[in-house]
């Protein structure tokens, strides 16, 4: 039994116990009880999880989240890959463009929501203005418009990450492969299919998983922009969870929702970690 | 000739994407420099009556001044706390094999992945019980939930890049562990620590949900102050845009310094 690494690890372990382990245990306990102010909690077992599986609000929030993740991935990954491929690999312009592209990643997520709220205001916002030129009457109080605005906001916010990772992946591909393919007279489409894509396979897989998890967790920007509305049109699982936890005083049921949400995310995170560890030998 | 045409088309595509990225920022600046009346009355693509009123108001409002100060203290506090605790754990993971090390590492990283929304209920209960509700210390402590795993993950990467020969040579030369760490190892990984500190600062500065649950007034960070004002005076867009500009500044500074590492920092974000 080595003592030294444990001593070094101990302070961190203590903090993680306090911040992650104890709260998780607390939530588990809440989720098994029925809580009502001034009445002793009543043990319910898995009752609240059973209720969850037949709660239409939960199920639609889950479905909405999956739809949102799918739509975001379907736009962001091809767009990000395309931009990364047209970016010059060397020179000042490419470097400067990458720096500007990275900016949305490092600003507070809630300010992203604020910026898009400014842009989507009726009368004074530019998005309704431009869309009216195209003959579309844009209105955030329409469910479809609100949902698609959040997709656009997510594309704006997170495509940069895909561009950064893909351009790193592209510059790691050996130049000789391309030269060999050109000498063989391969067309651009075939080079992409047989040289570029296979070379980017592992970073692409990591990105797909990562973006799936992140879109599934989205909270700050949506809360600022729509607060989950109009109606429930943009209520994703995270918003559903927080609403139940803070707003509804339904501690037990809120906790059951939290935990289910947590385990869905953690399952995908686990897959992601396995893929990353295998792909690049991290640690 | 064909190669040149291709270059031109590519450059145009990139420029279009850059416009897409920058436009919301421009709109925020545009809103912040307008007069109050101009913001709410009509759509204008540049401030017709340029004014610094919104910025003056932000600086003069104690609410925002305190919120900005809170955010600064919380972010610096989080950097100091996570680095001073995480650096030792990172060294342990980088240099030793011990029982369950891989499992612990996995578990740490999954904490980074956990949605903070899950912890809203127990955090409120626990932090109120131990008297850390609405204190900066409480918010700093809660941010270790996502920042400590990030610290360890990033630092392990930087430390793995330092050859173990360095450790062995130093111990043969008779350095104690602390002496070695201070005089030899620390200077070698200092750039990595700098990059890590930047990310910790940015993530702590940007956090909203835990900050909104754990504070009421005295420790409220700027993101939460902004959030509440959006719902309170929903039409003061000039003011909100001006505060947002303060809120995005650290991120823009960060891009200049840690651009090379941003992708890496977000792999566990």
Radius of gyration of chain B: 23 Å
The structural domain count of chain A equals: 1
**Most extensive interface: pair and counts?**
A-B, 91 and 95 residues
Structural class of chain B: mainly alpha
> What proportion strand of chain A?
under 5%
Overall geometry of chain A? globular
Q: Please, how many helices of chain A? A: 13
- Could you say which structural class the secondary elements and strand pairing of chain A correspond to? mainly alpha
Poorly predicted regions of chain B: none
CATH superfamily of chain A: MetI-like
Helix content of chain B: over 70%
Number of strands of chain A: 2
The largest β sheet of chain B comes out as: none
CATH class of chain B: Mainly Alpha
Give the overall average pLDDT of chain A. Answer: 87
CATH topology of chain B: MetI-like fold
As for the CATH topology of chain A, it is MetI-like fold
**Any idea what the CATH architecture of chain A is?**
Orthogonal Bundle
Number of H/I helices of chain B:
13
